[in-house]
Amino acid sequence: MIDVALLGCGGSMPMVNRYLSSTLIQYNGRKCLIDCGEGTQVAMRHLGWGFKSIDLICLTHLHGDHIFGLPGLLSTIGNCGREDSLTMIGPTGLVSLFQDLKVLLPYLPYEIIYYEAPKIYEVNDMEIKTLPLHHSLPCLGYSFKIKRKPMFDTKKAESYLIPKKWWNELQKGKTITDNGTVYTPDMVLGKDRNGLKISIITDTRPIETIPPFIQNSDILICEGTYGDDADLEKAMKNKHMTFREAAQLAKVGEVAEMILTHFSPSLSEPDLYLKNALEEFSETIIGTDLMVKTMKFKKK
Amino acid sequence: MIDVALLGCGGSMPMVNRYLSSTLIQYNGRKCLIDCGEGTQVAMRHLGWGFKSIDLICLTHLHGDHIFGLPGLLSTIGNCGREDSLTMIGPTGLVSLFQDLKVLLPYLPYEIIYYEAPKIYEVNDMEIKTLPLHHSLPCLGYSFKIKRKPMFDTKKAESYLIPKKWWNELQKGKTITDNGTVYTPDMVLGKDRNGLKISIITDTRPIETIPPFIQNSDILICEGTYGDDADLEKAMKNKHMTFREAAQLAKVGEVAEMILTHFSPSLSEPDLYLKNALEEFSETIIGTDLMVKTMKFKKK
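Predict the joint structure of the above. Result:
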């Protein structure tokens, strides 16, 4: 079971009723945070999932509304007793930025390991991919693929005459050598099963590399800075998207569901413009602060 | 008329129901902000007094809970259209910190002028003084004295035979030369009148230089990180104060009223410990987020 929480749905500035857009993925008790504007730690307190088990922070880009909450959050993670290292992924410029910011965080009790714009990063059962987006400075889209372990295949295990005492460890992925015979996990495991895919696309203009990148996502969390079609020019100038443009990407990318987020402070009622997205892609919903989606693996 | 708003009353970390301690003074439509932890700009949006007219930011010290909101607030002030320079006062280390932080704020549309630990700073009708406190790093207490202009003294003006046409300008403080005769403002103005004094003391252990510094304040906003007397050892270790210690300073300093603030995250109900302060100083109140005090000059 995977929980995905939208910590906030605003762009540019934190507002009284809207935190800055940030997403928290919880899987097997571990957490991955995507973006961290000012106030993200307060939104996390509202959510109540804790701070210590954030293993990974992914930054889309280095604009203030996506990073100004980092000094406070990193301090709070330390105050919560984290000592294990934490991984941070972000665009080119990440390492240099944090060298400058060290002055704000002289006493963190854990190490931060940085990866600048890796195409792919694997951790536990999650495969993370990045895609360069088209914004006013280097920006990354992310996809998170949570793999699903194959079922244990008793018949297969028996057909290889594997002693029962090794079944458990083989299922866990270990290779066993027993009296010169080598048993591998594939000898006890069934077919690959569908995992789950979450994609996060913000901030960007629509570009043709996005649909193949988000292809078949179970959830696409996508920026829709402007709701009104009439704001297209503004969207083009500020390197953002309208709801309609985001929905067109979702449609071509054949995602199961799209959640719009990163609304402009001027967009006080995003619901009023949902129809613009629905005309392009019917499985669109408007993100709201602290919205939580619980995702389950499909039966097959 | 002067408005003083407590934007938040928390120390250490912003909480769901308590912003970090920060104070906003509004006088003649201009604003002065003291400290700026993460989320201060959200508290300011709740208050609704605007951002553009903040002329002065005073920092007590450079711990995260007093400064992590600055990058976001300074950006927002810029987004609100400020072009006039802004003054920032803080302890030793301020200039060096902001040189490192420039990377976060590459496009501010206004200049920031820094003053490190000035003993005194005057702006318009306000006299600001600082006092070195005793915390775990350089820290300043502040007093803000808002001067009150003397009354116009008609009899005095007449006794100097000053032509009526100059009365208005002399009252405003201008010196006039008329046919070789020099008229000065003191020739039309009455006695000095009592102004108002606001003192802010956070974060610190109690030290003997505090009472003379806060002497006769109309309002003292003072840290009381711990409410329980039993937390004295913790207060000593972390260089903070208990309610009782703060109240003892207020009493010796003969202030009119003390508002306690900067409560530890562990102190969920400060009201429970108010009696510890009242035993020392009866004019103590517990600060709450967005509390506003409107101060008027006394009649004399």
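Chain A has two domains: 2-150+192-294, 151-188.
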